[in-house]
Write a structure and sequence with these properties.
Elements lengths: L1 E7 L4 E7 L3 E5 L6 H10 L2 E6 L11 H8 L2 E5 L9 E3 L4 E4 L2 E7 L8 E6 L5 E7 L2 E2 L2 E2 L7 H21 L5 E4 L17 E2 H7 L1 H4 L2 H11 L7 H10 L14 H9 L3 E4 L3 H6 L6 E2 L6 H8 L6 E5 L2 H13 L5 E6 L2 H4 L10 E3 L1 H10 L3 E4 L3 H5 L7 E2 L5 H4 L6 E6 L4 H10 L4 E6 L11
Parallel strand pairs: 3-4, 4-5, 5-6, 10-13, 15-16, 15-17, 17-18, 19-23, 20-21, 20-22, 22-23
Antiparallel strand pairs: 1-2, 2-3, 7-8, 8-9, 9-10, 11-12, 13-14
Helix pairs in contact: 3-6
């Protein structure tokens, strides 16, 4: 049996293709199913089953479409009420295809109906377990995504589910989680790129702490998560539409200006320093990187039209793919090329300075300046520059009036969030300075 990992680093998630050389099952596929189809093609196998560990809250599933395209059986927890044909499975049910055998295990915690799938060998012994948002590498899935009224109950359930996995599976069973590689579905940061049940017995907090200590620590550590999560469960329960990865319509400079002036989202994908050096007034800078889709989705007004600007067609297509993974489909236009050529005649580009924390300390010693910390409130509370205003990036659109005019130095932990914030705050009356630096270089006393 061969396990192929399909990585989605922009969302911190993994999908898996498991095959016996002839047939295959896919676990937790993302919406862009071409990657799963390509992986199956490379292995020369036929996908016969698609298995969901849970109704996902951080991305739009590709499971339904993959089952439609391939004719594969779509396996979903029998406890979930969904709006499409599927095979409902319960705790203990066996899913078989070719030489592959999976045993479903009910492992609630991340959601009420969460399943893990144990891969069995020819003798019926476990060799691997696909744990979704249950047991992660040195952590567990967060338990607050279904509402505060369920958090305590689900946290206790998560503790017992991880212990169930550790108690029932051999130490050498390989662990393959869906979340935990930067995903906000992880309760705490994870560590490592692979693991076994035995290794997790030594490091996972659900296995090294008593129940109440685990529950108290997990709940106290839960921080904000992206706003777009509110839409994912609904889409996945109803059944997502097929993905659209076509190149968005090309638009000219005059159309770009009209859209910006009308308040539409015109998103510049260029590197943060390139944006700072010159950009269309009123456009938003979301550098295309592994952080792009999380923070754009967090700030995005659901359903609003988006126009993408990039240096190449590849940038536009990569951004569209990322956005489609979280259900942002209303991409109504695109433009590529040097930014100077995308400006209308007579419309000057805007720009602002890029600096370091050392530069900020020098400036502060010479004159009054405003320092804006765009990290989350929990990050700010753990250590902040004296006198800094804290407006987390995901709250900035609603709280822009709290940022004064004049000289504003904007920072975060590493520069990405502050670069987005700088682009949103850049307007006449403010002199923006983007701190593109690691927060470890900051002097907290100013």
């Amino acid at each position: 049996m061969t396990i192929t990992t399909i990585e989605t680093s922009s969302l911190g998630d993994r999908s898996y293709l498991i095959d016996d050389g002839a047939v295959a099952a896919v676990i937790d596929p993302q919406r862009d199913i071409d990657r799963a189809l390509a992986a199956a093609g490379e292995r020369g196998v036929t996908i016969t089953h698609v298995l969901e560990t849970h109704i996902h809250n951080d991305y739009v599933t590709g499971g339904l479409e993959l089952s439609r395209v391939t004719g594969a059986e779509y396996v979903v927890s029998a406890l979930d009420t969904v709006g499409y044909p599927h095979r409902p499975v319960h705790d203990g049910d066996i899913i078989e295809t070719g030489h592959l055998r999976f045993r479903a295990m009910h492992t609630p915690g991340h959601t009420h109906h969460h399943l893990s799938y144990v891969l069995l060998d020819a003798t019926g012994s476990p060799t691997a377990v696909f744990t979704g948002g249950s047991m992660l590498y040195g952590s567990t899935g967060r338990t607050d995504l279904l509402g505060a009224q369920h958090t305590t109950e689900l946290t206790h359930a998560q503790y017992h589910s991880v212990r169930k996995l550790a108690d029932e599976l051999p130490a050498d069973t390989e662990v393959y989680p869906t979340h935990g590689f930067g995903s906000f579905c992880s309760a705490t940061p994870t560590s490592g790129d692979s693991s076994t049940i035995g290794e997790q017995r030594a490091v996972n907090p659900a296995l090294t702490q008593d129940e109440q200590a685990y529950v108290d620590e997990l709940i106290s550590g839960l921080a904000d998560y992206p706003a777009y999560y509110a839409h994912m469960g609904v889409i996945n329960t109803e059944g997502p539409s097929p993905i659209d990865l076509r190149m968005p319509e090309r638009v000219d400079p005059a159309t770009l200006r009209r859209r910006i002036d009308a308040g539409e989202w015109v998103v510049d994908l260029r590197q943060r320093r390139a944006f700072a050096a010159g950009h269309l007034a009123g456009s938003m800078g979301f550098e295309l990187s592994t952080s792009f889709v999380t923070y754009l989705g967090w700030l995005y007004r659901w359903g609003a039209p988006i126009t993408l600007l990039g240096t190449s067609t590849r940038d536009i297509m990569d951004a569209r793919r990322d956005l489609a993974r979280i259900g942002v489909d209303n991409v109504t236009g695109s433009a590529t090329g040097p930014i100077e050529q995308l400006a209308t005649s007579g419309q000057p580009l805007r720009d602002y300075r890029v600096a370091t924390f050392a530069d900020m300390a020098d400036a502060r010693a010479q004159r009054p300046i405003t320092i804006l910390d765009t990290r989350r409130a929990d990050e700010h509370a753990s250590g902040a520059i004296r006198g800094a205003i804290n407006v987390p990036l995901h709250e900035l659109l609603a709280r822009r009036e709290e940022v004064p005019s004049g000289e504003v130095w904007v920072h975060c932990q590493s520069g990405y969030r502050s670069s987005v914030a700088a682009s949103l705050l850049d307007e006449p009356g403010r002199e923006i300075v983007l701190i593109d630096d690691d927060f470890g270089n900051a002097r907290l006393d100013g």
